[in-house]
Input
Amino acid sequence: MKISRLDKKILNILLKNSRLSYRQIAKILKVSPATVMQHIKELEKNKVIRGYTADISFYKLGYEFKAMIQLRISKGKLFEVEKKIAKHPNVYAIYDVTGDFDAIIIAAFKTRTLLDRFLKKIQTFDFIERTHTSLILNIIKEKHDSVE
Output
């Protein structure tokens, strides 16, 4: 799918505030609401826009421990292990990566004890060869600001 200049402008507006109506976006861009709707529907159809969500501060909800957990996984078992770990409610991102490890998990926990339990649990999974955990102390940036 080719992304037009108008598509990029719409995406940048949605990145700042996905609650705006077609009419509000159209007014900002000086186009018709029907044009905005058509472009957004096409972006959704092509999975460029995968959904709309709230930007919630999990820290303010009591999730004080955010961790980046690197995993070394037995050859050929990467997707099986990732799929199993992805089901855990504290896990909100899993990435396949290059380098010394095969995957990275980003997860948040309310207590150190819950983080410890999670780590001990995944270390018992078949095909997990090694883990390396880093606590995330401060979040400097955690989202895209614009589409170029």
Observations:
- The mean pLDDT is 95.
